[in-house]
Amino acid sequence: MATVSVYNIEGKEVGTIDLNDSVFGVEVNDHLVHKAVVSQLANNRQGTQKAKTRSEVSGGGRKPWRQKGTGHARQGSTRAPQWTGGGVVFAPVPRDYSVKMNKKEKRAALKSALSSRVEEKKFIVIDEINFDEIKTKKFQSVLDNLKINKALVVLEDDNKNAEFSARNIPDVKTAHTNTINVYDILKYNTVIATKAVVAAIEEVYA
């Protein structure tokens, strides 16, 4: 069972916490982690790109000139691709880019991502982050105390003051227990979580 230090918002170590090996100590499955990232990025694509082919462009119903005898190359329509205002040859059409993963794969990938952060000592636990007001400077001071700049901060669902305080800090993203994902865990240098969040994650994914 992995043991990590617990810090307060001043950056001082105030204790330790044992992490559940079934969530934070699993063998990292690189294939599933890669699949989860590909799936998330693909699922974010709208797939709404569209252009008209020659059959969809308006006009061009008649032959612009007769087949022979004009000196011009033969043409069947002014909406053929080589004409200005003509259709696109292999026009893109709306499509679904989504990549499916089943629930077990998603859970395993998330556990692998969290375990990799614990292995690399890039998973930091804070006893609590409670602010009496929304203040970006206060949240920045917490990061400065922990000597962290680019971080994913996982907070309790009702911790709005801390969440809103972090909104304007570059390279910092907040998430909740039910919104953490593999891509964000890997994208940010460090994952910061409160003790309450760690307990909630273990309860959901153990």
TrEMBL record:
Q: Which UniProt keywords apply?
A: Ribonucleoprotein, Ribosomal protein, RNA-binding, rRNA-binding
Kindly give the Pfam families that the UniProt entry links to this protein.
Answer: Ribosomal_L4
Give an example GO molecular function.
rRNA binding
| InterPro entries named in the record | Ribosomal_uL4 (IPR002136), Ribosomal_uL4-like (IPR013005), Ribosomal_uL4_dom_sf (IPR023574)
* Any one annotated GO CC term: ribosome
* Region (Disordered) location: 43-86
User: What GO terms in the biological process aspect are recorded for it?
Assistant: translation
Keyword Repeat assigned = no
As for family, the record states:
Belongs to the universal ribosomal protein uL4 family.
Job description of the protein: Forms part of the polypeptide exit tunnel. One of the primary rRNA binding proteins, this protein initially binds near the 5'-end of the 23S rRNA. It is important during the early stages of 50S assembly. It makes multiple contacts with different domains of the 23S rRNA in the assembled 50S subunit and ribosome.
Q: How does it assemble?
A: Part of the 50S ribosomal subunit.
Quote the protein name from its UniProt record.
Answer: Large ribosomal subunit protein uL4
Lineage at the top is: Bacteria, Bacillati, Bacillota, Clostridia, Lachnospirales
